Amino acid sequence: MTSRNLDARIRRMFIAATLGAGCVLPAAAQGISPQTMTDALHAVMAADRTVYTKLIVNRLQNDEKLLKASEHWKDEKALVLPAQMFRYGAEEVAKTNKSFSYSLLSLWPINKQNAPRTPVEKEGLQYVVDNPAKAFYKEETLGGKKYFTAVYADRAVAPACVTCHNDHKDTPRSDFKIGMTMGGVVIRVPVQ
After folding, report:
1. Cβ contacts of residue 73 below 8 Å, gap of 6+?
2. What is the C-alpha R_g of the chain?
């Protein structure tokens, strides 16, 4: 199979997975490996997250000082934090599609609900902290169902990331710098 054909299959798979309203079979049943699927999904998620953080939040908050980003964005008429934007996207996907799930977790979460809950999440998050250029892949069984779980490093890409985490009143860690791994994107695909 050529690279062009594989890219076309990945695009079709991604469109079907995100728009298929739950009608998509697990990746392995479609002839696409779970790793290929999670890598493709992560590429889109990471690009969207980086664009929002750099071009919207960092520009409007730090460069032009027009708006701030806040976890209380509704009350303060502020921008949604990048982590909140990511969570809202995951919640929207979960409403219409059960072929995969994703979340943003951290070993040092500001919001405790973003802490790892499974041994694989903990192992994966530590792995990407130690090896930020590599992804972590492992199968796990949750609720009697087998999943392919992938964890990707979530790094500070703009000053807005570092400032928010280092200065937050509930932060368990305040020494982040640009480029450091602050957490991880966890993507799960059912394989059974």
Report:
1. 79, 80, 81, 84
2. 17
In 3D space, the residue among 103, 122, 87 whose CA is nearest the CA of residue 186 turns out to be 103
pTM given for the model: 0.78
Candidates 108, 100, 56; CA nearest to 80 is 56
Q: Which residues contact 144 (CB under 8 A, 6 or more apart)?
A: none
> pLDDT tens-digit profile of 70-108?
677 888 888 888 888 889 999 999 999 888 999 999 999
Contacts 24+ apart (CB under 8 A), 169-175: 170/110, 170/111, 171/108, 171/110, 172/108, 172/109, 172/110, 173/108
Q: Which helix (H) or strand (E) holds 186?
A: strand 181-190
CB atoms within 10 A of CB 119: 10
Token pair in block for residue 107: 């070993």
